[in-house]
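Most newcomers find our protein records easier to grasp once they have seen one. A learned vocabulary of local backbone shapes supplies the integers on the structure line. An example says more than a description, so a record of this kind follows:
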Amino acid sequence: MFRRTVLSTAVAVALGSSFVSTAAYSNEDSVEKLEKIQVTGSRISRVDVEGPSPVVVISAEDIESRGYTDIFEALNSLNQNTGGSLNQQNSFSFTPTAQAVNLRGLGVGRSLILIDGKRLPMFPLGAGGAENFTDIGQIPIAAVERIEVLTDGASAIYGSDAMSGVVNVILKKDYEGAEVKLRTGDAHEGGYQNNRLEVLAGTAGERSRVTFIAQFQNNEMLRNADRDWANNDDSDRSQFSAYSSYGASFQAADKTVTIPADCEGLLGKNAVLRSDGKCGYNRSAHRTLKPENESFDLMANFEYDLSDDMTAFSRLRFGQKETLAYFEPNAYDVELSATDPGNPTFGTPGAQKGEFTRRMVEFGERSSGGESQYLGAMAGVNGLFNDQYDWETTIGYTIQTMDVTSEEIIQKTIDDMVKARTLNLLEEIPQSVVDAARGTSKIDSESSIISWTGSFSGDLMELPSGTAAFATFAEINRTEYEDVRDQGTLDGIYVGKGGTSGGGERTQYGVGGEVMVPVVEDLEVTLAGRFDDYNDDSKTGSAFTPKASFAYRPADVLLVRGGVGKSFRAPDMQRLFGGTTKGFNNSSDPTYCEATKSSGGTPAEIVEACGTQYFDTEVGANKELEEEKGTNYSFGIVWEAMDDLTVTADWYKVKLTDLVVTPDLGRIIADPSRYAGTQVIRKGDGTIDKVIYGPVNQAGENVEGIDLSVRYRFPETSFGLFSTEFATTYLIKRETQTSDTDPVKDVTDHEPGIQASVNLGWEYDKLSSNLFVKYRDSYCSDFANDYYFTDCEAAKSAGYETKVSSMTTFNLSAKYRVNEQAVVGMGITNLFDKTPPADPLDGTSPYYAETYDNPVGRAYYLEASYKF
């Protein structure tokens, strides 16, 4: 029988994880019994699992003891996740159901996500409408044995996307018995009640093993109105906060404003009378901090020993997730000429053109969300050849779909009625008009991947200084995606809504090898290289990515390691093959701001002109894109300073070039000529009507920092077993270059310079407890990074506050083992109910760092498990 069974807790200890549970320490002795194992970042099995590349491990015990509700929360707590993540805290997102990690802050698409070392399909919709990424929300937390996170580039091993690191989710297998887990929780201030039910069952025969996992999970919607700090547009949390001017107003060319006799009577309690005389609106009352989710996941693993040296295995996965969030009713505007009957000045001696702005409250709140499904199957055979060479071959298929339906307003129907004066926007819109102007927008998208992988590895030869080892590997991946919109959306008939159907396919061939050579005693050098070829209808061709690394052990208690390697990323398929994505976005507009100042605008007009502007956008594709390129450097030590005390320090540097980016809207508006094919189309009053742009290969980015961790397990006392760990990531420098002709810009101040965590564990008899502390350093608002201002100093010189304050949270949990079968537990997350610090330059309520901070506040949960 060919099987290699490794205790995940022992692996966590051996790897020098910065997430090691108290339970893991109790299995310390089993590390010495481990045979050669394979760890993420290398395909060579080794006796010394702490190798040349740094790997962080998050165990299932860590996930439970820290109160995480899903895999995203666990990965988002990583200190290496320095740039903030793609989460569900943005109601306007193109990807409402999805979640993604952003290692080193280099982009969600530049961190490779694997399940048991195998690729997943990209999410059917792109982040921001364009960037491919893998949705980690499709992986149920109940199925996770551990998560191995390689914090170094690894294209030489895994190919495209592994530029900032690799997240490898190891699933549970070889389980015998049955277990049921139930968790229920709620927020202290309400609004986020959540539940999870897990079922784990397995059986093993003489030659076969079966594991079955099911999970059901849901949570209530958390609205801005549920939190005092988030329910008002006009908030002291931002210097750019303001009620929307889109309430119900008509502004003539001479700036004269006409509003309803009773603004609140027309629009409801969220209507406000602005200082500029317009009938405005409080959008925050409708917005969502966290969406409602309901998901169901099933997974089954099968293994059968064909012989003593060969095992067949397979895995089936299925899941479904529904997400719903609400935000404010649609904002509508229409320009009227002096001769349009619907113009309030029509027929008067001073008739002049003007514009209606209206919050379409009669059509109700808008919604964001949809239904996502995935189905995956994988089968393979592995074995031992000639009693010394490991081999494996697998084939797999996974498909993920995303369906989105939303009620929209037909633009032309309202335009015609308003211009003809059959509809007066300063009065209530009749239900008959709502029915006539309502339409349904649909998005049906899917992506799939079919993969074959093969590997062959083992000892190469005996050398005077030790045994040389090798690994060879090959894979073929065929990826397809399709994004289909309804005809109305394609024609752009809806207010603030649009898009174009798209689709494409790509076949990728990869082959590579890895050799580990003990050059002298205690010094191992590993050389790896991989060749990838891309077959699709674009300029993407082939790439060779080498890597060299070393592991030097001058003493039994000290490891010195380092490496340098190349990495690459094939262009996003949406950016190559997608149609034009029509949408609604916002940015500052320095041209309009300066024009308003120079024309003698009032203080209120200047504030509005220099604040956030909203407009239509069209983002197109570009088949001329080429692959992105990168170079990764690392150097570090692992020092066992004394028994049960381990110190790990790793320096990293990543240099990326030819990055495919959709240029920042603020830069486009400031200088459209910088980007070929870009257009900024303005209305007659100088405000932006539409921005047309697309992706380009011209950006660069460099990031450098240090990861540090210190772990100590105290000698056992009469009060129990105590353990502690401190881990931190320090950002030395981040530099960006917008285009080849632009200077390199230091943007280090625009993200937390330090992220740190402390974990304290305690075990006594049947009791255990855990305290996890997470710290995010303060930083300068990113809205002072070529958005409202060129940089922090420019904002400060203009008299603006720029600091987003630091945030520290405490998660406390306790668990009691009733007997061999039953365990009960409880926990509190965000123990001291810390409110996310304000972003003083954010122009969108609720004005906080949504990619870093959690808006829920203090929350409680109870959990129980029973083994049959």
